[in-house]
Amino acid sequence: MDGGVGYVDMDALKATELRLGLPGSDPPEKPPPTTTTTARPTKRSLDEDRAARREPSEGGRATSTRATKAQVVGWPPIRSYRKNSFQAMKAAAEAAGLYVKVSMDGAPYLRKIDLEVYKGYKELREALEDMFKCFEGCKGSEYAITYEDKDGDLMLVGDVPWEMFTSSCKKLRIIRGAEAIRGLGSSQ
Amino acid sequence: MTYFPEEVVEHIFGFLSSHRDRNVVSTVCKAWYRVERLSRRSVFVGNCYAVRPGRVMARFPGMKCLSVKGKPHFADFNLVPHDWGGFALPWIEVAARGCPGLEELRLKRMVVSDESLELLARSFPNLKALVLVSCEGFSTDGLAAIATHCRGLRELDLQENEVEDHGRQWLSCFPDSCTSLESLNFACLKGEVNACALERLVARCVNLRSLKLNRAISVESLARILARTPHLVELGTGSFTVEHRAEAYQRLIHAFRKCKSLKSLSGFWDIAPRCLQAIYSICPNLIVLNLSYAPAIQGADLVKLIRHCFKLQKLWVLDCIGDKGLAVVASSCKELLELRVFPSDIYGTGTAAVTEEGLVAISSGCSKLNSLLYFCHQMTNAALITVAKNCTHFTRFRLCILDPGKPDPDTNQPLDEGFGAIVRSCKDLRRLSLSGLLTDKVFLYIGEYAAHLEMLSIAFAGDSDKGMVYVLNGCKNLRKLEIRDSPFGDAALLENVGKYETMRSLWMSSCDVTLGGCKALAAKMPRLNVEVINDRDDSDEMEENPSDMHKVEKMYVYRTLAGARNDAPEFVEIL
Which residue ranges are recorded for the region named Disordered (chain A) (predicted)? Predict the structure, then answer.
């Protein structure tokens, strides 16, 4: 893999290069970055940034060597008004918790739980068992926990990582009886 | 034409709607200058520091409409320190003394105090229109003054201002006799508003055609308002928090059905996806739709809606619409002229919401597209070349790849060729914003092909001074050039100093320009203000007399007839 970025012929470029010196004299070496440009914690040094862009990295894809995007002032170029609206909305959504309805086949009413309270599937299952144990019939506890995701599809709980689940789960549904057994059987 | 009497010349000038055309005819000869200036009704001042207010009023005594812009564009992204300037008060004071006939005032990116709004209201009781865009420095008290004194107000349009909330009573200050409002926009206000007063106000303003509410207005109130304003053309909804089975929601659907003239919709904060159904009846007539403040609406919900909007010309959405959603837009909205796709997840890594695929899809379906603002995670040269082939009518093309300096992910090449294709193909391009990995080559292309380019925004791009020089030498119609974090230094800055007098302004921040270079520019060009803006945190570190080799963090250069301004804060040095 070569330099990774396509530059024009360097000699030709050099011949037409603009300089402050007389033609024929060599351009002075670029001075090292001054202390003022590197001291500020909220900004990246321009030279660091350019060095990062020019160096080829393994794998061919020139990835960013910046620590976090948030350190670049004024980037991405979004009006503060819009940024502030977003932060407010995000905060409101986060504070409100992740409440989803839980329905159980045969139960006369639904429940609501806050998914953010649980750390993982085990805790969720335990909580649901606890919540619905009064409705379990004498047939025992054959059931499958399913959820409706963003696209409206009915999915089995437990397939995806917990965070992915909480961000896409819109409501929970506990399926009981024959349907559940059949479904569980095919997945094992 | 010099043989025509002045009245005829004036009459002919009346057909010139563009202020630029009028500026040009006024330079033909003294007679035309005189006729033009006395008959000018609408004046546009693109930079409040380019000319003194007094001079404007003296030249155009018959002025009825005044537009003034203050801070440079990069102020929108917090690159300009808070109290840099751009005060509206001097303009309002001078207008109050010298321009009694003023009827419309439009201010953008200016600092507007309550005191100036008071003065405006008292001095111009016949004010017909006040439009404030991206301004700050005032509160609802200032609005109260306007509502109280401007009896015949037709338009009060507040767009994305930072307004301090001093209570809800300002709206009640519109007297019962006020029936003239045609356009009211207070969407940017954060506080509560007196809903009853609002409902009464809209009911008695029978000519009201544009109404944009703020987030505090409930759905119940919205339903009542819509029932009284069935002739509305533009609506910004308030908060759309409602259970879709609630009675209020049903009333809302009913009210929307009655609004047969609605062509523009915005707002929709907090809206739940299910509630979008309320506006299905309006979609076939929609020309403008702004859903960019509704992050709860994901691609699938949006798509159901957009399919009905076949007359849509302007669409603002969040990137949760996804590439697939954009494909639906492309197949449904054949009349689309303007598209803006904003990022919904600014700081997180998140999933790639829209990529080059979405843009290519749009371009193949919406060939009339002339204005684009597109935030995405990646872009390829191939995609841009395809877009350039499909859409040749771009006048505004702004692409923001969220990761600065990111190359084409397929080829690892810079995006020079892609943007080059855009400028070659879109001969009417007036505004361009670049992003991604770019070398000097892209500027060579821009200088050569972008003949009508007026505004260029550059960030993290280029290799050497040559890049900037290509642009300065090539783009004959360049008016505004703003550059950040790019390796352009004194050689580029000083290469074509005369150019800056043909432009409104030049902004350079985090580049390689030194104090010495700025001083040299200021010395050569006395009719430019060369402002060196120092960041606050710098003032402790910096020595008393920084050397000329010291790199300037922020520089703002603009042509001016007014000389150095006298309201600059201490962190701004005018050379």
Answer: 17-69
